[in-house]
UniProtKB/TrEMBL annotation:
SUPFAM superfamilies: Creatininase (SSF102215). Keywords: Hydrolase, Metal-binding, Zinc. Signal peptide: none annotated. The keyword Metal-binding applies. It comes from the Bacteria. Belongs to the creatininase superfamily. PANTHER family: 2-AMINO-5-FORMYLAMINO-6-RIBOSYLAMINOPYRIMIDIN-4(3H)-ONE 5'-MONOPHOSPHATE DEFORMYLASE, 3-DEHYDRO-SCYLLO-INOSOSE HYDROLASE. InterPro entries: Creatininase-like_sf (IPR024087), Creatininase/forma_Hydrolase (IPR003785). Its cofactor is Zn(2+). This is Creatinine amidohydrolase. GO terms for molecular function: hydrolase activity, acting on carbon-nitrogen (but not peptide) bonds, in linear amides; metal ion binding.
């Protein structure tokens, strides 16, 4: 006996008729993930943040229920990574316009909520800035819920690495033990394990992040890593994915989704 095919939630893999049916059946929430195409040290590909956002969006949609997943905005705000070849970056106004256009496209189709989050920490200051403008520009019938707490995500990564392997100190927020572990779960074939190396190992706080945004990652970490990927494992990756999913789901639920 064949098992039933898992229900597809990604709009780009559905037909228009299937999406209309899903909306009629109550799928009125859309998940909008943001990512980035930027360097992630010598051992991870530039797709890390977008791969992460893809996976989190599906998890969030399944947990919330009655939700569909929009295509990830793969290029984000990454000027602080432009010192490394291949990194792409859009202006804050461009990222805001893309999010506005995505959400605006949904307004006439029967969606009533959009949950917006990022797999790239560098997008969060931009999201916090444009949230009120986004809400003001869209029809009142479409609620936009923007998850904004990047500090909580970093803390969740630290707690995940610490609880699984006692490696919370290896989390620096970029190509570290958490992100490397997530990629070992999602795309192990993309991880160059033999090239993994520690980068900046100092304190990562708001003051440090402001310095990075001004001076660039290469000014503080020549190899582009913040933290240490040593000790990465699928167990840490699963814990980190679960923890961040919990954060976004709890926020979206508390704010109406």
């Amino acid at each position: 006996m064949r098992s039933e095919r898992p229900r597809e939630l990604r709009v780009e893999r559905l037909t228009s008729a299937e999406i209309a049916e899903a909306i009629s059946a109550g799928a009125r929430t859309a998940i909008l993930p943001l990512g980035a195409i930027e360097q992630h040290g010598p051992h991870l590909p530039l797709s890390v943040d977008s791969d992460h956002a893809d996976a989190l969006a599906l998890r969030i949609a399944h947990r919330l229920g009655a939700a569909l997943v929009l295509p990830t905005v793969k290029v984000g705000y990454s000027p602080h990574h432009l010192g490394f070849p291949g990194t792409l970056s859009v202006r804050p106004s461009t990222l805001e316009a893309i999010c506005l256009d995505y959400c605006g496209s949904l307004a006439a189709h029967g969606f009533t909520r959009v949950v917006l989050f990022s797999g790239h920490i560098g997008n969060y200051p931009i999201m916090r800035d444009f949230e009120p403008r986004l809400a003001a520009a869209l029809p009142l019938a479409l609620q936009v819920i923007v998850y904004k707490d990047s500090a909580a995500i970093l803390d969740a990564w630290r707690k995940s690495a610490e609880s699984v392997a006692g490696l919370g100190s290896h989390v620096g927020g970029h190509a570290d033990v958490a992100e490397t572990s997530v990629m070992l779960v999602l795309h192990p074939e993309k991880v160059r394990v033999e090239r993994a190396a520690a980068g900046y190992l100092g304190t990562v706080d708001e003051e440090f992040l402001q310095r990075v945004f001004v001076e660039g990652i290469d000014a503080v970490s020549p190899n582009g890593v913040l933290g240490d990927p040593a000790g990465s494992s699928k167990a840490i990756g699963h814990a980190a994915l679960d923890a961040v999913t919990d954060l976004v789901v709890a926020y979206a639920t508390a704010h109406g989704a």
